[in-house]
Amino acid sequence: MTSEETQPREILTYELFGLAVWEIAQQVVDSGYEPDVILSIARGGLGLGMGLGYALDVKNLSAVNVEFYTGVDERLEVPIMLPPTPAAVDLTGLKVLIADDVADTGKTLEIVHAFCEGHVAESRTAVVYEKPRSVIRPDYVWKRTDLWIDFPWSSQPPLVDRHGGLAH
Fold this sequence. Notes:
Blueprint: H1 3-6, E1 9-11, H2 14-31, E2 37-42, H3 46-55, E3 61-71, E4 74-82, H4 88-91, E5 95-103, H5 107-116, E6 122-130, E7 140-144, E8 148-150, E9 160-161, E10 165-166
Parallel strand pairs: 1-8, 2-3, 2-5, 5-6, 6-7
Antiparallel strand pairs: 3-4, 9-10
């Protein structure tokens, strides 16, 4: 076992994820914010965005692809938005709820928030987890932790290795 494997981790199950989505949606409702669109940060924020869309009765969902993590605690210098990105004109004047799985450094949320700034009526952020070092304080958070998080969708290796065919 590597030291990575023996470190304490935050474990999110699909069942807990369902509870997290509902509780985050309740926070949004309780705050009085009524988003016109939910902008999910792919890949981690897609499930949250879909769940919030149903819970908040928002059918206008969009996604933006941001690359930052390359492995456990390995990341690029700065996050980059990958094409295709939603056209800023499509968001003009709308109230946007930006959804992601975790605000770790917060830089991914920061780049998407900056993308929206000046175009949208208002944008707020929702995450399942927030870490203390995040440069952005999300508006809606289910849980705060400083541990590495095992998400149910990424805790197992992929079935396919895109660089070499089937994984096993």
